[in-house]
């Protein structure tokens, strides 16, 4: 269970239940005679971040980093990135609300059931385990709703802007740093010195000089994770800049041609992008092995119910065709004459070589159980009623056949990271944010002394 909660913290699912947990543990003061209960730390457009929320989030992040690194960082070093994260969460939720994005209870419950299932629990067991660990389930549930809301917002505001050309796919497949069959994975750390939108030449010079100075510190032996925590303005600050393991093709386009030439422990040159100046450290490199997949070649006949053909009649018609095949009729001829699948009927029902996961589960389950040469009994799928015949099976390295589809997805993901960074920066620059406390940490400690 600790691993479950740890992964959720890493995905920023620790925020919404923070205030409830703090109240339960007595870390947020309760109202009393003349006592200051709380303060507004930041005004974020139409919302506010309270000092108690900031302090509780800081406490939880400190625990997370201490569990990961073995030591607690200075709270002063965490204040800016934690506050930035809270601000960006509020701004994105407000934008989603303006666009009418809302996660209904059915979708939310399905997501919670999936989380529980991934951790080998029922939803009830998962809820009980969270409560046993001191987590308010209702607040946790609403935080999942917020994460789903932000994800939908990203799809609407960012994903729809991304276009991938055929030339880009060709270039990726052919490139040294992007070939997706290189069987290499990289673990990277990332540091960003951001630029405001429409930065003037002086701002650009200052940001580049700052990035070069940080790089010099790293080359002189400074801990890169601490430099990230102190200086970076990227989305992975609280993870020490860790981007995790990525294949060569999953490395962001901006970094890929640098990373492929780096050795473990190397720091990249300062890399310029529209969002600012970047440094990348290659912490580890490892190889991958190819995976052979089991392909099936099959053909089928589909009979689809309609306004003039009931499901019972469709099934009976297919049963007659099955009996004719059993008596020696040619499967291909019957498919051409009777199948309602226009794509395969002209080929005698032939579906070609089928990879795992290509067909709907109802069809694939029957296909996998059918021996080569056999014809299945009639069965139902979302498309109607089928009989199928498996003609061949083979173990095949299909990477070449599916390479273009993979390349397209990977290019979209690379572009998405760059586009998301730019969009988040624009959202921040166009919003009203007012800091109400000059020193929220000092104010928080002073409040604690008064309440004691």
Automatic annotation (TrEMBL):
PROSITE patterns associated with the record: PPIC_PPIASE_1, PPIC_PPIASE_2
Function: Chaperone involved in the correct folding and assembly of outer membrane proteins. Recognizes specific patterns of aromatic residues and the orientation of their side chains, which are found more frequently in integral outer membrane proteins. May act in both early periplasmic and late outer membrane-associated steps of protein maturation.
Span of domain PpiC: 183-284, 293-392
GO molecular function ontology, one term from the record: peptidyl-prolyl cis-trans isomerase activity
Name of the encoding gene: surA
Compartments reported by the entry: Periplasm
E.C. no: 5.2.1.8
Cross-referenced Pfam families: Rotamase, Rotamase_3, SurA_N
Signal peptide per UniProt: 1-21
Recorded catalytic activity of this chain's protein: [protein]-peptidylproline (omega=180) = [protein]-peptidylproline (omega=0)
Entry remark concerning the domains of this protein: The PPIase activity resides only in the second parvulin domain. The N-terminal region and the C-terminal tail are necessary and sufficient for the chaperone activity of SurA. The PPIase activity is dispensable for SurA to function as a chaperone. The N-terminal region and the C-terminal tail are also required for porin recognition.
Gene Ontology cellular component annotations, sorted alphabetically: outer membrane-bounded periplasmic space
Residue intervals passing through the bilayer: none
Predominant cellular place of this UniProt entry's protein: periplasm
Listed name of the protein: Chaperone SurA
PANTHER family: CHAPERONE SURA
Entry-linked InterPro entries: OMP_Chaperone_SurA, PPIase_dom_sf, PPIase_PpiC, PPIase_PpiC_CS, PPIase_SurA, SurA_N, Trigger_fact/SurA_dom_sf
Keyword Repeat listed: yes
Record carries keyword Lyase: no
UniProtKB keywords: Chaperone, Isomerase, Periplasm, Repeat, Rotamase, Signal
GO biological process, any: protein folding
């Amino acid at each position: 269970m600790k691993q479950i909660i740890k992964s959720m913290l890493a995905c920023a699912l620790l925020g919404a239940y923070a205030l409830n947990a703090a109240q339960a543990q007595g870390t947020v003061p309760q109202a009393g005679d003349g006592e200051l209960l709380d303060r507004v730390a930041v005004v974020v457009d139409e919302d506010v971040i309270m000092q108690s929320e900031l302090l509780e989030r800081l406490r939880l992040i400190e625990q997370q980093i201490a569990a990961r690194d073995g030591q607690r960082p200075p709270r002063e070093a965490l204040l800016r990135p934690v506050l930035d994260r809270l601000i960006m969460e509020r701004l994105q939720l407000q934008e989603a609300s303006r666009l009418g994005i809302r996660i209904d209870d059915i979708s939310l419950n399905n997501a919670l059931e999936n989380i529980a299932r991934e951790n080998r629990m029922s939803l009830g067991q998962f809820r009980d385990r969270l409560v046993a660990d001191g987590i308010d389930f209702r607040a946790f549930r609403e935080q999942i709703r917020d994460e789903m809301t932000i994800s939908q917002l990203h799809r609407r505001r960012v994903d729809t802007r991304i276009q991938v050309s055929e030339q880009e796919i060709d270039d990726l497949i052919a490139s040294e740093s992007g070939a997706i069959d290189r069987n290499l994975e990289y673990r990277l750390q990332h540091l960003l010195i951001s630029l405001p939108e429409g930065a003037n030449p002086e701002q650009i010079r200052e940001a580049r000089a700052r990035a070069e100075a940080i790089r010099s510190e790293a080359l002189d032996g400074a801990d890169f994770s601490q430099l990230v925590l102190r200086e970076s303005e990227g989305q992975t600050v609280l993870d020490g800049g860790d981007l995790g393991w990525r294949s060569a093709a999953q490395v962001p386009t901006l970094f890929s041609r640098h990373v492929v030439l780096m050795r473990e422990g190397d720091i990249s040159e300062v890399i310029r992008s529209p969002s600012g100046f970047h440094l990348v450290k290659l912490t580890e490199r490892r190889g991958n092995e190819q995976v052979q997949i089991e392909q099936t070649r099959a053909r089928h006949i589909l009979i689809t119910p309609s306004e003039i053909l009931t499901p019972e009649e469709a099934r009976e018609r297919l049963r007659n065709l099955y009996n004719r095949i059993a008596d020696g009729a040619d499967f291909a001829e019957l498919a051409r004459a009777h199948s309602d699948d226009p794509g395969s009927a002209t080929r005698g029902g032939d579906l070609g070589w089928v990879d795992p996961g290509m067909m709907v589960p109802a069809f694939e389950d029957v296909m996998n159980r059918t021996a080569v040469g056999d014809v299945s009994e009639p069965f139902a799928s979302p498309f109607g009623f089928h009989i199928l015949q498996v003609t061949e099976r083979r173990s095949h390295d299909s990477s070449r056949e599916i390479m273009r589809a993979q390349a397209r997805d990977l290019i979209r993901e690379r572009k998405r990271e760059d586009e998301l960074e730019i969009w988040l920066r624009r959202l921040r620059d166009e919003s009203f944010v007012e800091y109400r406390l000059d020193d929220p940490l000092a104010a928080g400690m002073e409040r604690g002394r008064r309440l004691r």
